[in-house]
Amino acid sequence: MGLRSYKCGNCGANLTVDTFNMSAVCEFCGQTLTFDTEEVSNILEEREKTKRMHKAEEEQTKREEARLKHDAEVKKIETEADEFMEGARRVKQGFDTVNRGFNMVKTIVICVFVGVVLIIALIALFAILKHLG
Ligand SMILES: [Zn+2]
């Protein structure tokens, strides 16, 4: 129990505080002060109650802060996942575009090839007919 020095109200000398008996005695003039133990315990109880309340409020605030932090982290992860999915979607779109272009080129090449084969066949047919005729 921390003690501070008390002065005698009668003569101003320092009082000797006896915490066990909740009293103070002036060694100079003999004035004795007795603390009302019930009042003191009420004050202490009130102080404890206030302390507990403050502690509960602090814990509530800490929990609230932790919850907000957690929410922010979840939100961040969700945003990153969304961005990743958007990136993947764009890559897939790019592949699809390239694929369509490739298919178109393939179709053109096949058409040209078939055309060339037909022309050669016609030329050969005319050559044969001319030779026979
Ligand atoms: Zn005194």
Summarize the structure.
With 133 residues, the chain is an alpha+beta fold. Helices cover 72% and strands 11% of the residues. The chain has two domains: 1-35, no CATH class; 40-132.
Q: What gap, in angstroms, lies between the N and C termini?
A: 135 Å
How many domains?
2
Structural Rg: 50 Å
What ligands does this structure carry? Answer: zinc ion
Task: Note the run of SSEs as H and E.
Answer: EEEEH
Q: Helix count, per DSSP?
A: 1
Estimate what percentage of residues fall within beta strands: 5-15%
The strand count comes to: 4
Range of helix content: over 70%
Main sheet makeup:
4 strands, antiparallel
Look at the helices and sheets and give the structural class.
Answer: alpha+beta
Oligomeric form: single chain
Based on CA inertia axes, which overall geometry fits?
Answer: rod-shaped
Major beta sheet, strand line-up: 1-2-3-4
Q: Runs with pLDDT <50, length 5+?
A: none
Mean pLDDT: 92
Give structural notes.
By secondary structure, the protein is of the alpha+beta class. Helix content is 72%, strand content 11%. It has one helix and four strands. Strands 1-2-3-4 form a four-stranded antiparallel β-sheet, with no helix packed on it. The radius of gyration is 50 Å and the shape is rod-shaped. The termini are far apart. The mean pLDDT is 92. Bound molecules: zinc ion. Residues 8, 10-11, 13, 26, 28-29, 31 line the site of zinc ion.
